[in-house]
């Protein structure tokens, strides 16, 4: 019994000693705590490493900034040392630039004044033309008297007849038009070679322009390539015409540029002024869905109006009237019962502001406006000022001055050559432009009648020079020396010069054809003149002498 009790006590004592809650083992959790500590140490080490990298990066950036500041200081120091030198070069460059700009402006303004120099100043295109035979004074005088002078009386009679009929036709046109809805037509004006007395080739054709204006309360507001708006080079010389209400703001209200809410109204413009139906603008001859005047619509309206006007007055005349050319909507022809006919052009135009510059839709029988950018682009014509300039200068020239004679002879020679070899890029307008430049460049006494031969040579040399350089500037545009008596708009005088030969730069085939035709005309000049010249005794002339071009 005591042995059994002892054994039971021994088992109980052993259980108590080994129970974990009473006597826990000191090393029982060591492995778990060690791993956690190691993990925390690693995390701390990684944090310290990242902090070290950040500090190193900041130190590197500070060093880079310090170096940059030191380098900038060195550059500033060097700049200060060389400041005087740089200022000198800058000033010198500015002086050179200003001198070049002044030279360019002087060259553009006086580009035609060198035309009166020696023959060496005139560029030539080939050695073959240095021996061109040139008629002398007696031959030229005989040619002019026989072939050209006799046509002056015919032109005067034709102008009188055409102007009288045109006035009657336009008066009838006003009577058939609706004054409240149709365009208002003004009196016609004669322009061009027939009214400047230098047209020589038949058939004679009178060019009449007819200004028109929109009905009330509308007006025309024009924009040109030199009015500050951006126009591409191909559209230089053109402009657009906007049809607006007379009470509409010129600069345009913000309501026309911004979409207002449905519940918002403009206090300056009523809805009737802002919103115009498309049909209303088309009735005003505008391009579809725009406010810009359409040249095609204008010519269609004008043809219909002229037809109605002729039907009203045709019983008063013993001839027929018809449109003669499909590509020239304003070209009219009077046909008499005898078979004879008279052609004239009646072209509607729009006045530019309060000047005598006009927007014209097309140029009959001319390549000046052959390729319009669009039907809303109108070419500007300065024909009225050109006529006035010739009249103004003629008052200062000697009696029977030879300027018109030179232009007539040159126009005849070129036209005759084109009839033999085909048309070229040169037009009578180019020839007149040459004469206008020479009229401004040469003194008045140089245009005495006995100097016809010398001035004709000058025109030929000058024209050859322009063809060689592919540059013939419009006489009025960019010309700051236009006489103040003409009252010419200053905006066109300040514009960049307009090169009438620019198409030659773009179309090399046309240019080559034009140059070939011009040289062929020089070769055939003597033969062409002698063909229409009366016989002159050999004692009066040495025949033909040679001039070098």
From TrEMBL:
Pfam families to which the protein is assigned, alphabetical: Mab-21_C
Keywords: Cell membrane, Coiled coil, Glycoprotein, Membrane, Nucleus, Signal, Transmembrane, Transmembrane helix
Membrane topology: Single-pass type I membrane protein
Domain of life: Eukaryota
Keyword Manganese applies: no
Transmembrane segments: none
Cellular compartment(s): Cell membrane; Nucleus outer membrane
SMART domains linked to this entry: Mab-21
Domain Mab-21-like HhH/H2TH-like: 404-477
Entry keyword annotation includes Transit peptide: no
CDD domains, per the entry: UDM1_RNF168_RNF169-like
Main localization of the protein described in the UniProt heading: membrane
Signal sequence range: 1-24
GO cellular component: nuclear outer membrane; plasma membrane
GO MF annotations, alphabetized: protein kinase inhibitor activity
Coiled-coil regions, chain positions: 38-82
Record's function text: Enhances Ca(2+)-mediated inhibition of inositol 1,4,5-triphosphate receptor (ITPR) Ca(2+) release.
Protein family: Belongs to the ITPRIP family.
Name of this chain's protein: Inositol 1,4,5-trisphosphate receptor-interacting protein
The gene coding this protein: Itprip
